[in-house]
Amino acid sequence: MYKKTILLLSTTLCLFGINLPKIKDIATIPQNFESYSFEHNISFEKYQNNFKTKYFNPWEKDSNVSAQIFSFGEKYFKNKTHFGDNKQEITQSAKDKIVANADTEHYPSISRNGVTLRNTDCRLLPTAKQFFLDFKKESGGYPFDYMQNSMIHINTPIKVLHYSKDKSFVFVKAPYVAGWVSSNDVAFVSDDDINKIKDVKFITPIKDDITISDEDNFISKAYIGAIFWQDENNNIFVFKSDEKSKAVLRKITSFDGNKKETANIPQLPNKENLTKIATELYGQNYGWGGFLQNRDCSMMIRDFYTNFGIYLPRNSFDQANNNKEEIIELQGKTKEEKLKIIKEKAIPFATLFYMKGHIMMYVGTFNDEVVIFHAFWSIKTLNKGRFVIGGSFVTSLSPGIELAEFDHSNGTLLDKLISMRILGSK
């Protein structure tokens, strides 16, 4: 039965342009989420109660970003060698020009409530230039633009805190990240509109990469994890900008021509909804920091749980550690001890596994083997090499271990597991 399911799924994915990586896990472990056992009594209610508060946090009067965080990008790139998209080293004078444009000595130069008008890249410094480490390494060249901090969805509340010298970028605080975005991608929101919006319902796409339009005029692409506002008459709104960069409410008339492409937040965390969203995120290209509007491990996890009214931070460390009461430490335990704890306590679709730099979602077991869903770039191989996966797939905790070039000295995901965080309660 499983072989037939896998064969059918593999054929379907190929027809839709998804080429499955050639590792044993993805060929033999069911990639169909409905194949896994499920806890029907998951409750996310305690997170849902403060979801709106966290989402609207940038609009609070005292919402700000410390000078230390603001200057992180400048310090991060100092005295390091980077390469541009032409594979040539970026000169120090080019770096100095970008840093000077940040106008650090005058930070913060403004404090106004705003909103993103479209999906926008959040950068560590005010530049759209790409910064790569080493094109000779799979984890140093494309798609690892180290200037990229995150992608911020359209219609996200922000606090605008600073302008670059040339006014082409603004430094903003979003609900889950802070950094530089293009000035053209933001508009300022009035207090009156903020008061109107704080009482509306939240809706979110349940399909990825859908088109939203206004009376047949294209507005933007929208992705799972984006949030839109719905009033008591079921009208759906986003903001647009007038000629003075003031945000004006704009009614959406179409989500790919079908409002069934959206759902209210929070959705019920039942098997149908959880597997539906996971299936939409499955097989997508990996995108470091939201590079090219693709997802890395933590962005995928964050967007997934947004549907169910769970606010999560943007990076993997914070996602795994921002509620100590829910964390079970695994570091220092043997493989056998880790597996025993996981099988006894982990809840499918409601447990996060964490290792340094990576976050994964537990989905159950297959043939008594722990199975996870995660977005990952590659598997380390001998001689500092990489076997590239570049997407979001279902695997065991030792993907690629059967490869002749697998770097056993580096260990498996299971070896490197630090902790697990249980979000759902029984």
Indicate the topology.
Elements: H1 2-15, H2 24-28, H3 45-48, H4 51-55, H5 67-70, H6 72-77, H7 92-101, E1 112-116, E2 120-123, E3 148-152, E4 157-163, E5 169-173, E6 178-182, E7 186-188, H8 191-197, E8 201-205, E9 210-214, E10 217-222, E11 228-230, E12 236-241, E13 247-252, E14 254-255, E15 262-264, H9 271-281, H10 297-306, H11 316-321, E16 327-329, H12 335-345, E17 351-355, E18 358-366, E19 369-381, E20 385-395, H13 413-416, E21 419-422
Antiparallel strand pairs: 1-4, 1-7, 2-3, 4-5, 5-6, 8-11, 8-15, 9-10, 9-14, 11-12, 12-13, 16-21, 17-18, 17-21, 18-19, 19-20
Verbal overview:
Helix content is 23%, strand content 27%. With 426 residues, it is of the alpha+beta class. It folds into two domains: 2-44 and 291-422, endopeptidase fold (from Nostoc punctiforme) (Alpha-Beta Complex); 51-264, no CATH class. A six-stranded antiparallel β-sheet has the order 16-21-17-18-19-20. The protein has a five-stranded antiparallel β-sheet with strand order 6-5-4-1-7, with no helix packed on it. A five-stranded antiparallel β-sheet has the order 13-12-11-8-15, with no helix packed on it. Strand 18 (358-366) and strand 19 form a beta hairpin. The protein is globular, with a radius of gyration of 22 Å. The model is unreliable at 1-12 (pLDDT under 50).
* End-to-end CA span: 31 Å
Uncertain spans, ≥5 residues at pLDDT below 50?
A: 1-12
Largest sheet: 6 strands, antiparallel
Instruction: Output the structural class.
Output: alpha+beta
Strand content: 25-35%
**Strand segment count:** 21
Specify the oligomeric state.
single chain
Q: Specify the helix fraction band.
A: 10-25%
Spatial order of strands in the largest sheet: 16-21-17-18-19-20
The gyration radius over C-alpha positions equals 22 Å
Q: How many distinct helices?
A: 13
Q: How many domains make up the 3D coordinates?
A: 2
Question: Overall pLDDT, averaged?
Answer: 91
Shape: globular
